[in-house]
Amino acid sequence: MSLNSMRARLLLSLLALLAAAALVMGASSYRSVLAETEAMFDYQLRQMALALRDQGEIAPSQAHTLSDEQLDFVVQIWTADGRSIYASREHANLPARALLGLAEINVAGQRWRTYSVATPGRVIQVAQPVQIRQKLAAAAALRSVLPLLWLAPLLALLGWWLSALTVAPLRAVAAEVSQRDAQALAALPTAGLPDEVAPLVKALNALLQRLGSSLDQQRAFVADAAHELRSPLTALKLQAQLLQRAPSEADRAAAMAALTAGIERAARLVEQLLALARAEPGGPALALQTLDLSELVRGVMADCHPLALARGTELSLHADMPVQVQAEPTALAMLVRNLLDNALRHGKAGGQVELSVSEIAGRPTLWVDDDGPGIPANERERVFDRFYRRNPGAETGSGLGLAIARNLAEQHGAQLKLLDSPLGGLRVSLTFA
């Protein structure tokens, strides 16, 4: 079990707390029992001295008992003038007469605890060696601590079992995850999880859900892209075969023109597919900077001017003053280019496309208006789907422009809406926060 393991750290913490608690309790019990034993010995000294004072004389049987060598107490009696008249047993260095009450005296390097009481004619003193008192007290105190020493290993085993029980839910979650393959993204079970583990599992489930959605989007994107690329590539193959079989120079020129147009459409489709992949949610965050929206729109209009000339469309921009936005230049230019390209391709040939930049209630806004057929209100949300075309047979687009534009708008925190245009066609509004 590694020291970096949660179970090991929990177990070590429990053992440290257990050891500290046992040490404090043992020390407290030891000192308490020592103090109580000392007090009990003092009480015995006092009671013995008072009992001898009250009975007046020592009976022969009592004198025999008091003279027992195994008895820890020594009884001495002096007359009022200090003459020794009794000692319970012989001793080389008996304590001298001490002050009345409890006292501690030192005789030839040995300490004695004494209690003295006086009567009108004599002084009675009961003494006990301090060393014996301490030995008996320490033994009693140690006996009080022994249960803790026996209990500590049991508590350690209990702590080990509790630590295993505590981390069991984490082990169960880890086992569940380790048994899954890359395609198993179902939510992990949350029933019966502790409150501390449940947030982790819920976060994992949310991550699995996001991963599942992302994989589904990628699979759908790959399937749609393969489907969309199949037709132009097949057309290119057929146009190349027609070019090879062309009987005359005029036929070869027409086949070459058709092949070139097909290559351009395929190249544009691939370019839009790459742009859509880069604009998908979950990509790297954009490095935003302060830009003049009007100036950026002018640059995009210059790039799209050849397409406008080819369709005979009049381009115009209404922007009276600079409008500052927080955006990434390349991504925002791609967004505006897709909106303008969509308007040029679906507006009337020889018609007009108007762009307007202004600031409304502190929010920068771009409008792109065309004079084309527009989009019915009930279809405006669907046109943001990838590869969706309202009339596939009549339109040359790939159905990706608005999908790319919406993804880029979301990455900029902007809102894209489709409205009716004053020119009679479609108005696309891009509003920044």
UniProtKB/TrEMBL annotation:
<keyword id="KW-0472">Membrane</keyword>
<keyword id="KW-0902">Two-component regulatory system</keyword>
<dbReference type="InterPro" id="IPR003661">
    <property type="entry name" value="HisK_dim/P_dom"/>
</dbReference>
<keyword id="KW-0597">Phosphoprotein</keyword>
<dbReference type="GO" id="GO:0016301">
    <property type="term" value="F:kinase activity"/>
</dbReference>
<dbReference type="InterPro" id="IPR003660">
    <property type="entry name" value="HAMP_dom"/>
</dbReference>
<keyword id="KW-1133">Transmembrane helix</keyword>
<dbReference type="InterPro" id="IPR036097">
    <property type="entry name" value="HisK_dim/P_sf"/>
</dbReference>
<feature type="transmembrane region" description="Helical">
    <location>
        <begin position="148"/>
        <end position="170"/>
    </location>
</feature>
<keyword id="KW-0808">Transferase</keyword>
<feature type="domain" description="HAMP">
    <location>
        <begin position="164"/>
        <end position="216"/>
    </location>
</feature>
<dbReference type="InterPro" id="IPR013727">
    <property type="entry name" value="2CSK_N"/>
</dbReference>
<protein>
    <recommendedName>
        <fullName>histidine kinase</fullName>
        <ecNumber>2.7.13.3</ecNumber>
    </recommendedName>
</protein>
<dbReference type="InterPro" id="IPR005467">
    <property type="entry name" value="His_kinase_dom"/>
</dbReference>
<dbReference type="Pfam" id="PF08521">
    <property type="entry name" value="2CSK_N"/>
</dbReference>
<feature type="domain" description="Histidine kinase">
    <location>
        <begin position="224"/>
        <end position="433"/>
    </location>
</feature>
<dbReference type="InterPro" id="IPR036890">
    <property type="entry name" value="HATPase_C_sf"/>
</dbReference>
<keyword id="KW-0418">Kinase</keyword>
<dbReference type="InterPro" id="IPR004358">
    <property type="entry name" value="Sig_transdc_His_kin-like_C"/>
</dbReference>
<keyword id="KW-0812">Transmembrane</keyword>
<dbReference type="Pfam" id="PF00512">
    <property type="entry name" value="HisKA"/>
</dbReference>
<dbReference type="InterPro" id="IPR050428">
    <property type="entry name" value="TCS_sensor_his_kinase"/>
</dbReference>
<dbReference type="Pfam" id="PF02518">
    <property type="entry name" value="HATPase_c"/>
</dbReference>
<dbReference type="InterPro" id="IPR003594">
    <property type="entry name" value="HATPase_dom"/>
</dbReference>
